[in-house]
Amino acid sequence: MSVARRQLIRGFGLAGAGAWAGQARIAVAQPAGGSAVPAAPTTGPLAEPAGRVILAITGKIAITNDGDAAKFDRPMLEALGMASFTTVTPWYDGAVTFEGVPMTRLLQRVGAQGETVQAVALNDYSTEIPVADFARWGVMLALKRDGNYLTIRDKGPLFIVYPYDTNAELRSPRYYGRSAWQVARLVVR
């Protein structure tokens, strides 16, 4: 196993190479120049959003920037360090590449201490996701699909996705139901 792959597995918190058995490819997103996107510090105060807030996190979190909430604009999320993977989903034809923030990294940044996360969409759809899923499966909060920012019409601005091709277990109604799109809020419980 390459050094880059070991670092990536560690970054996603995956237990071992067995999570790579499927066809999905998971990689650290890289800009055109070829170097890895640097991640923002994972400790200390959380900056204030400079642009439109696209995500609010509340609940059992230790780091906030607006009362009891941690609010993020797109640049703040991207500054946490982007990753990508390619997988087949039931919502798109063929394999697609998602880019976004690993959920483990996002929760670490806000000092989350809960066992579940309730993802709430713009239309108030909600789903409960065990926090353990994030490290086990390398779950991502996607901002892009095939290089383009997700729009509301295309399940954006944020879409919680699993690397469905890495394990047959992920290709089931249980995990598809946890894959919330148009995510606006996360509540850590």
Overall description:
- The protein is an alpha+beta fold and 189 residues long.
- The chain has one domain: Sulfite Oxidase, Chain A, domain 2, CATH 3.90.420.10.
- Helix content is 19%, strand content 30%.
- The protein is built from five helices and eleven strands, in the order H-E-E-E-H-E-E-H-E-E-H-E-E-E-H-E.
- It has helices spanning 3-12, 74-79, 103-109, 131-137, 173-178; strands at 25-28, 53-59, 70-73, 83-88, 95-102, 116-121, 126-130, 140-145, 148-149, 159-161, 183-188.
- The strands form two sheets. Strands 1, 4, 5, 8, 9 and 10 form a six-stranded antiparallel β-sheet that branches. Strands 3-2-11-6-7 form a five-stranded mixed β-sheet.
- A hairpin with a 6-residue loop joins strand 4 and strand 5.
- The longest helix is centred in the first third of the chain and has 10 residues, at 3-12.
- The protein starts with a helix and ends with a strand.
- Mean pLDDT is 83; it is low at 1-41.
